Amino acid sequence: MCGIVGYVGPKQAAPFLLEGLTKLEYRGYDSAGIAVFDGNKINVEKSVGRLSILQKKVENHMPVGTIGIGHTRWATHGRPSDVNSHPHTDCTGRFVVVHNGIIENYLHIKERLIAKGHVFASETDTEVVAHLLEEYYTGDFEAAVKKVLAEIEGSYALAFMCQDHPDKLICTKQDNPLVIGLGEGENFIASDIPAIINRTRKTYILSDGEMAIVTKDSVWVMNRQGVPVTKKIFEVNWDAEAAEKGGYEHFMIKEIYEQPKAIRETMTGRLAKDDSRVVFDELKWTKEDVANIKKIVITACGTAFHAGIVGKYYLEQLARIPVEVDIASEFRYRSPLTDEHTLAIVISQSGETSDTLAALKEAKRLGARTLAITNVVGSSIAREADQVIYTWAGPEIAVASTKAYTTQLISVFMLALYLAELKGTLPPERIQELIKGLRALPGQAHELLEDVEPIKTFAQQYGFNEDVFFIGRSLDYAVALEGSLKLKEISYIHAEAYAAGELKHGTLALIIEGVPVIALATQHDVYEKMLSNIKEVKARDAVVIGIAMKGDEEIKKYVDHTIFIPATDKYLAPILAVIPLQLLAYYAAVTRGADVDKPRNLAKSVTVE
């Protein structure tokens, strides 16, 4: 997730571009850049790091010109660096492009263009777009853009500038947001409304497959075939602060609603087109590599640790490799039995978690092969690990992790399928079935988020209880751990998660009349036993909220309330089941008046031991 801005009009472009990027820095903050046409050539200024570094760099020699584009980056391809920062240019400097998203087939295009003599400066997928424009351009800017769009595959919002056409910008989108701000004698492009809200309230919201030609006096919108599209003006009535959160009250709820997109992005380019296998170009493991793995150790902290617990089930049951899961702060103090036949997987949203980094270094010292699963390209953990799987969730601003967790689950699940295929532990038809289930997840997550009113009601009804318990079996127990953490960290309610089969070994003593119990029952192989455990807590007069799959009418007989998730494979249920738990935690915190995005005593990235 990156931030895009563009301007064409009578005023100097650079001040708006920098102003707009400050409003979008929450979308990406590892580098930034602007490109402005000065009447003779396009001048590009960019730098790694926060936007303030770029602002300081140009403050005494601001690029001059009345048309330009800008970008603030959250890296997916290529580590954060000056050269990998956007905007990107072709060999001649005639074309400049900024991009939010992922070009899936960039490597094939890049190899072809290099063979034809193109010289690439960066490691990014975006740069191929600029070189394709150069390749196809014969004087018609619009025609060249259409040819580029016919060739690239993936998700994107793109803005283009050409020095031969100094009066226009061209932009387009597919699966990533893009808006056009309508001014008087000037027009704006942005990936999100906060960038333009101080300049205009009138916007066009582009739809997938649409392309716009933007000049200072006009905006032409068309489809990829050039057929004009009539757009309705969307009048923004949010204030600036609300606009930054996309109209949501808090970043946390915004990020919960971003999960369908984040899930889709993390799968992008990693599933074969025929759904036959998982493709990890960043790993390129062979059967011999995998045969050498005798044990897997997963180590992480907090929410990432809970993702690791789910991962244990995935890797053991699908790939049939023994897995240990360790809290990172404990790993290096227990003299772990780790050697060259161990794969150590470390999971961290930020890639900077101090304890997880220390555990990674210890695993390497003991001879293990190391694999990081992280959301931040170029982070300390990404640099230290032998190999990396990036979760393309985009920046997460709220302290309580939501979309980072679900994309970690997606990543570990795809890794389990990847290993299963190499080891031959799953038949091809089962792998294909699970991949089809993966592809359905973004739509199912969206479906879950369409009706949250019952969850709001439950949160308001039970939000002032001081104790809540979560129970589940198998994968549901792993999800219960994350649900309880979410509730306690943002609402300050005492919440505990228990393996449901452990109730009779002590936990039942805590169940009293009226105490809320969240019971997850999505795993069919332990379903009857789970119902038995629900009956146990109901017999002690607990109030039970059941989480089950659609079509399960049986559970209604034994619980007070039910939240249904879309029907899916049992292995994919954790990815959907956690979403109502996130919502319960969020609305409970709102009910109690807590500071949702910045809970007391907590920080987003824990960089001290």
UniProtKB/TrEMBL annotation:
<protein>
    <recommendedName>
        <fullName>Glutamine--fructose-6-phosphate aminotransferase [isomerizing]</fullName>
        <ecNumber>2.6.1.16</ecNumber>
    </recommendedName>
</protein>
<feature type="active site" description="For Fru-6P isomerization activity">
    <location>
        <position position="604"/>
    </location>
</feature>
<dbReference type="GO" id="GO:0006487">
    <property type="term" value="P:protein N-linked glycosylation"/>
</dbReference>
<keyword id="KW-0315">Glutamine amidotransferase</keyword>
<dbReference type="InterPro" id="IPR005855">
    <property type="entry name" value="GFAT"/>
</dbReference>
<feature type="domain" description="SIS">
    <location>
        <begin position="286"/>
        <end position="425"/>
    </location>
</feature>
<dbReference type="InterPro" id="IPR001347">
    <property type="entry name" value="SIS_dom"/>
</dbReference>
<dbReference type="GO" id="GO:0006047">
    <property type="term" value="P:UDP-N-acetylglucosamine metabolic process"/>
</dbReference>
<dbReference type="GO" id="GO:0006002">
    <property type="term" value="P:fructose 6-phosphate metabolic process"/>
</dbReference>
<feature type="domain" description="Glutamine amidotransferase type-2">
    <location>
        <begin position="2"/>
        <end position="217"/>
    </location>
</feature>
<comment type="subunit">
    <text>Homodimer.</text>
</comment>
<feature type="active site" description="Nucleophile; for GATase activity">
    <location>
        <position position="2"/>
    </location>
</feature>
<dbReference type="GO" id="GO:0004360">
    <property type="term" value="F:glutamine-fructose-6-phosphate transaminase (isomerizing) activity"/>
</dbReference>
<comment type="function">
    <text>Catalyzes the first step in hexosamine metabolism, converting fructose-6P into glucosamine-6P using glutamine as a nitrogen source.</text>
</comment>
<dbReference type="Pfam" id="PF01380">
    <property type="entry name" value="SIS"/>
</dbReference>
<dbReference type="InterPro" id="IPR047084">
    <property type="entry name" value="GFAT_N"/>
</dbReference>
<dbReference type="InterPro" id="IPR035466">
    <property type="entry name" value="GlmS/AgaS_SIS"/>
</dbReference>
<dbReference type="GO" id="GO:0097367">
    <property type="term" value="F:carbohydrate derivative binding"/>
</dbReference>
<dbReference type="Pfam" id="PF13522">
    <property type="entry name" value="GATase_6"/>
</dbReference>
<keyword id="KW-0677">Repeat</keyword>
<dbReference type="InterPro" id="IPR017932">
    <property type="entry name" value="GATase_2_dom"/>
</dbReference>
<keyword id="KW-0963">Cytoplasm</keyword>
<dbReference type="GO" id="GO:0005829">
    <property type="term" value="C:cytosol"/>
</dbReference>
<dbReference type="InterPro" id="IPR029055">
    <property type="entry name" value="Ntn_hydrolases_N"/>
</dbReference>
<feature type="domain" description="SIS">
    <location>
        <begin position="458"/>
        <end position="599"/>
    </location>
</feature>
<keyword id="KW-0808">Transferase</keyword>
<dbReference type="InterPro" id="IPR035490">
    <property type="entry name" value="GlmS/FrlB_SIS"/>
</dbReference>
<dbReference type="GO" id="GO:0005975">
    <property type="term" value="P:carbohydrate metabolic process"/>
</dbReference>
<dbReference type="InterPro" id="IPR046348">
    <property type="entry name" value="SIS_dom_sf"/>
</dbReference>
<keyword id="KW-0032">Aminotransferase</keyword>
